[in-house]
C-alpha cells in the first residue's frame, strides 16, 4: 500500500532556474522515497507520446517544443498515495490558480512555464514511468526510517 509510485519531472524552465533541488527537497522532506532520477534532453517522440492525450489542443506543439528546449530532471517517487499527494504538492496546472505553499504556487506564473510535471492518476503514473524509465533504472530499497514515517 505504501509502494504507489508517481512520475515527477522538473521541466526545462525549472532546471534553468535552479529549482531541481528545491523540488526534490519537498518530496524528500515529506517522507517520500526517490526510486529513480535522471537529467536528460527528452526526444520529441517521447514528449509527443507523454502528452498524446493533449495532441488536439492548440498549445500542444508549443508544449512539446518547450519540453524539448533543454534538459528535464525525470524522477520516480514512491509512498502512500504519492500520486494524489504529488499533484497537491505541485498545485493547479495554471500557476496563478495554485495555492501559495505549492511548488507552482511558489515558483512560477504562466501555465506554459509551470516548471514541474506530476502524473494525474495511478494508471497514468504507470504508463509514464514505463515510458521514461527502464526497469533496471528503478531502485528497490527500504528507508531505514520507514517506521518513523509510516505507522
Ligand atoms: P498538468 O501538467 O497539471 O497535468 P495538463 O496535463 O492538463 O496539466 O497539461 C499538460 C501541460 O500542458 C501543463 O502542465 C501546461 C500545458 N498546458 C495546459 N493547459 C494549457 C493551456 N491552456 N495553455 C497553455 N499550456 C497549457
Ligand atoms: Mg497532466
UniProtKB/TrEMBL annotation:
Name used for this protein in its record: Nucleoside diphosphate kinase
Task: Identify the domain of life.
Answer: Eukaryota
The entry marks the following residues as binding ATP, namely 11, 59, 87, 93, 104, 114
Q: Which GO terms describe its molecular function?
A: ATP binding; nucleoside diphosphate kinase activity
Q: Which UniProt keywords apply?
A: ATP-binding, Kinase, Nucleotide-binding, Transferase
Active-site residues annotated for this sequence? 117 (pros-phosphohistidine intermediate)
Major enzyme class = transferase
Please specify the portion of the entire protein covered by the chain, as first and last position out of its full length.
50 to 200 of 200
- Which family is this protein grouped under? Belongs to the NDK family.
